[in-house]
């Protein structure tokens, strides 16, 4: 069995059942393995590695923010240049807000037959390999949850995405291309016209460090932008087309995120997001894992197999939901 074959087994793992933490004893991962697990969760994803990660020590983690908006200075003298005492209504009052990470429980069961274990060339290192591979697979699922979670889904339709509201659902700024109201996905200038519309929709106070922002897109958007670069016939366009040159638009990197293709395949249904792109600041995208990640080994002798049951509690949020723009490429504005 190579890693690819083993990963296919992991990806077909059943999801269900309950594991009580108090019953696990030594099966609770040691801190060194927990650190490794979280690192592996990020290894095959694009947004999670850059997003802000909280190792949650409680099931609920509050994300507080504070800011002064508008003008805070006033003249210290009146119109006659005499001393002025400010009324309390003129005092500067900071605005505060709190978002929460509320860890939800998720489970995965990977079942391995004895024949596979006998053929395993890693022997005593197999458990570490299993943790790494399972971590990669769970990482992909966690990124999908963080992006596309939507509590409007029925549990019967999607038992994972229905548990939390993700980054697309929580974004305060949205634009639409399905009715061509904000940008036209069929225009010759696409996706540059979409990038412009996203920058226009972003409140400008957030765009000071433009190079730290990201356009997160699927393969089709990245490919279309690369083709636009080639069509210009410039040296930069040639390099963008023939090399692995990092693409950027007006200083903002254009990053391919494979996970975005999952929602595109489902189409723009009532709650389905369809084809989307995200303009975001990675440090504003927050996700967390409650520290009790567990793996229990369960032997089924009669079935000649060993089951590995993984349980974790995770959630995703924004520090500031106003500092993001989501473009629904194939979805029409429901308000129009």
Tell me the radius of gyration.
24 Å
Enumerate the spans where pLDDT stays under 50 for 5 or more consecutive residues. 6-28
Number of helices: 9
On the 0-100 scale, what is the average pLDDT?
78
Major sheet attributes = 6 strands, mixed
* Helix content estimate: 25-40%
Q: Strand arrangement, largest sheet?
A: 5-13-9-6-8-7
Give the number of DSSP strands.
13
For this structure, the quaternary state is single chain
Straight-line distance between termini: 54 Å
Structural class: alpha+beta
What is the string of SSEs from the N terminus onward? HHEEEEHHHEHEHHEEHEEEEE
Strand content: 15-25%
Shape: globular
Annotate the secondary structure layout:
Blueprint: H1 3-11, H2 31-43, E1 52-56, E2 60-67, E3 95-102, E4 104-113, H3 114-119, H4 126-148, H5 167-170, E5 173-176, H6 192-201, E6 214-217, H7 219-231, H8 235-242, E7 248-249, E8 252-256, H9 260-266, E9 276-280, E10 285-290, E11 294-300, E12 305-318, E13 324-328
Parallel strand pairs: 1-10, 5-13, 6-8
Antiparallel strand pairs: 2-3, 4-12, 6-9, 7-8, 9-13, 10-12, 11-12
Helix pairs in contact: 1-4, 2-4, 7-8
Kindly describe this structure.
- The longest helix is centred in the middle third of the chain and has 23 residues.
- It contains nine helices and 13 strands.
- Helix 1 packs across helix 4, helix 2 crosses helix 4 and helix 7 runs antiparallel to helix 8.
- About 7% of the residues have low confidence.
- The N and C termini lie far apart (54 Å).
- It is globular, with a radius of gyration of 24 Å.
- It has 336 residues and is an alpha+beta fold.
- 28% of the residues lie in helices and 25% in strands.
């Amino acid at each position: 069995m190579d890693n690819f074959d083993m990963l296919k087994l992991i990806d077909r793992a059943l999801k269900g059942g309950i594991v009580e933490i108090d019953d696990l004893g030594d099966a609770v991962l040691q801190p060194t393995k927990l650190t490794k697990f979280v690192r592996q969760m990020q290894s095959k994803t694009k947004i999670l590695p850059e997003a802000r990660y909280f190792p949650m020590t409680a099931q609920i983690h509050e994300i507080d923010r504070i800011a002064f908006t508008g003008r805070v200075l006033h003249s210290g003298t009146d119109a006659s240049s005499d001393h002025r005492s400010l009324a309390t209504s003129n005092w500067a009052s900071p605005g505060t807000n709190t978002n929460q990470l509320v860890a939800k429980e998720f489970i995965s069961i990977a079942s391995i037959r004895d024949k596979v274990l006998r053929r395993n060339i890693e022997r005593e290192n197999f458990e570490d390999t299993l943790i790494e591979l399972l971590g990669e697979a769970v990482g992909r699922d966690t990124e999908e949850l963080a992006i596309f979670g939507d509590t409007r889904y029925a549990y019967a339709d999607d038992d994972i995405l229905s548990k939390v509201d993700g980054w697309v659902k929580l974004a305060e700024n949205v634009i639409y291309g399905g009715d061509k109201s904000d940008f036209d996905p069929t225009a010759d200038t696409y996706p540059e016209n979409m990038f412009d519309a996203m920058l226009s929709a972003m409140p400008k106070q957030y765009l000071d460090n433009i190079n730290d922002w990201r356009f997160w897109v699927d393969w089709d958007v990245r490919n279309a932008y690369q083709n636009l670069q080639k069509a210009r016939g410039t040296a930069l366009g040639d390099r963008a087309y023939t090399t692995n040159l990092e693409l950027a638009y007006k200083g903002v990197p254009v990053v391919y995120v494979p996970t975005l293709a999952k929602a595109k395949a489902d189409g723009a249904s009532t709650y389905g997001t369809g084809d989307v792109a995200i303009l975001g600041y990675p440090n504003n995208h927050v996700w967390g894992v409650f520290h009790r990640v567990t793996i229990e080994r369960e032997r089924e002798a009669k079935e000649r197999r060993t089951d590995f049951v993984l349980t974790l509690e995770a959630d995703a949020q924004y520090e500031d939901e106003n500092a993001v723009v989501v473009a629904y490429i194939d979805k029409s504005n429901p308000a129009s």
